[in-house]
Predict the 3D structure of the following.
Amino acid sequence: MLRATIDAVCVGSADVFGPNGEPSAIRKRRVAGPVRVEAEGPAGDAHGDTVHHGGAEKAVHHYPFEHYRLWQTELPNASSHFEQPPFFGENISTTGLTEENVCVGDVFRVGEVILQVSEVRQPCWKLAHRSGVPDLARRVQETGRTGWFYRVIETGTIEAGVTMELAERPQPEWPLSRIIRGLYHTPLDRGELKGMASLPELTAGQRGLAQRRLDTGAVEAWERRLTVPAE
């Protein structure tokens, strides 16, 4: 049975962040004690860009803590950023769950809360801006250490120390690492795109992205998402 203990639950409010005053809530903080999780995410959590972040289909963001050790090794000049969560803006931090062993549609019971894996994170320039590593968002994308999102099936409270336990796995052939490869490494593989476009548990946004590639035979531009805006 796949399970992990939550090491940290984190929330944050939106404030001025980007080089031109772009808002973000990436600067989250760890919360001591129970946090209420509603359909659109943890209480006290906000989003600076509500077009691309948040909402019921991307209500809770999970980032594996084991990735932090790899970032420290690979980016020693920025290692202070990778000492503890929530540098990546995550709501949940654990050790033991990664993109390799978590699948699209996985349902996790977290105390009284039930969460379902809905999509992989598409990293953006805010990671680069926060760390001072200009290509960090691209590195996150290329390594597949993206983290992922959940939709909330049953609301309730969560807190550090609670166990996450896999309750259902409707798509065992679709680990998140496969989605990541399809998005970024073999982006025009029609077989993978057809599979992604037909996954009912995947968000409409990522299903639609796969379908657009099928329809156009082209990959959408990534530079605006990955590159810190010029002042």
About this structure: The helical segments are 66-74, 125-131, 136-143, 176-185, 190-197, 204-216, 223-226. The CA atoms of residues 15 and 23 lie 5 Å apart.
